[in-house]
Amino acid sequence: MYTNKFSNYLKKKKELIKELIKRLGEEFEYASCLATDVKGTSVRVNKNVTSVNPSSLTESGFVIKVRGKNLYTEYSINEINEKNLDEVVEKVKSLANTSYTSTIVNSNLIADETLQKAFVRKNPGKDYKVDEIIDIAKNKVNEYLKDFTTTLRELGLKIDDIEANPAYLNSGLSVYTVSLSIISDELKKYKTHTEIITALKSIEYIYHIEEM
Fold it and tell me: In the chain, pLDDT over 90 holds for what percent of residues?
């Protein structure tokens, strides 16, 4: 398991958020801000693919909640900084003071609980650094490639050239162009190119193979 450290971005926003809450607290009986900055690393290993890439499951932003007139209001924004702090405060106030024609359901004031205990979730497995995960994935790719070349030789095929396709870097796929020669007389006599390719497709970590 790999666990990211707490966001440096949010650490830098801490004092600004405290100022925001202070100013909104002067206008509303309740004010809070949920801040998130999530970045991850996607590790994919199966019989066809081994890859380590930035995760698409990311998020960053702020959700501000206030209570006024027995009604809670939420306002979300991607960025809060010193330049737009005044504007954010005014937008939250304007939204909270919006008049509604529909029936409003009154809500009770949220009572903040005192923090009882701080803890860090224990991971029963081993913790890995990003570099360690990348090394593991690369070793798995090399293991598959070594096994593939050994299988070709056992079939009576000679590898004349093998080249990794750079166009697929960081795509999650390992793509190679392989030049082969048939050195087995039996293979030349009884097997067509199509039959050889069909046999190679049966290898569990081969996702796609075709003759050029």
Answer: 27
Per-residue confidence (pLDDT) for residue 183, from 0 to 100: 84
75, 187, 198, 203, 206 from 192: Cα distances, Å: 67, 8, 10, 18, 20
Give residues with Cβ within 8 angstroms of 30, minimum separation 6. 65, 66, 67, 72, 109, 110
pLDDT for residue 1: 45
How far is it, in rounded angstroms, from Cα 170 to Cα 42? 11
Residue 100 structure tokens:
């509604």
Distance CA 100, CA 74 (A): 15
Residues pairing with 73 in the sheet: 66
Backbone conformation region of residue 70, classed left if phi is above 0, alpha if psi is from -120 to 50, else beta: left
d(CA 27, CA 93): 8
**Strand duo 157-164 + 176-182: pairing:** antiparallel
Token pair, residue 28, equals 């509303």
Q: Buried b / exposed e across 26-44, counting CB within 10 Å, b at 16+?
A: eebeebbbebebeeeeebe
Residue pair 53/41 in contact (Cβ under 8 Å)? The answer is: yes
Predicted model pTM: 0.52
